Amino acid sequence: MFVLAAKTPPVGTEVEIEFVLPAFDSVPRPTRLRCVGRVSRIEICYQLTGFAVAGHVIGELPGNAEACVPANQLPDVRR
Question: Burial letters for 2-25: b for 16+ Cβ neighbours within 10 Å, e otherwise?
């Protein structure tokens, strides 16, 4: 998985990522998933910055996918 982010965690950091897949033909509703893994690389290209995560999807999370907060609206909790 590759995550676009203004700030990136260091390579080797364990991360947990929750994301929403939008509805499509085979899945009639948005689905919230959780991935656990480690940052495997950081990339900076032009004005885009991001990091790759090597890990696995834990599974579907309960709850309303439409109630998720977009990533650009999350508080910055990094130190």
Answer: ebeeeebbeeeeeeeeebeeeeee
Domain count for the chain: 1
**Residue 50: both structure tokens together:** 């991001």
The rounded distance, in Å, linking the Cα atoms of 59 and 20 is 12
Judge whether 44 lies within some domain: yes
Within 13 A of 69's CA, how many CA atoms are on the CB side? 6
In the prediction, which pLDDT does 70 show?
54
- Domain assignment present for residue 78? The answer is no
Tokens at residue 36, please?
């656990």
Q: What pLDDT digit, counting tens, does each position of 1-46 carry?
A: 899 998 999 999 999 998 888 888 887 888 888 889 999 999 998 8
The pTM is what?
Answer: 0.67
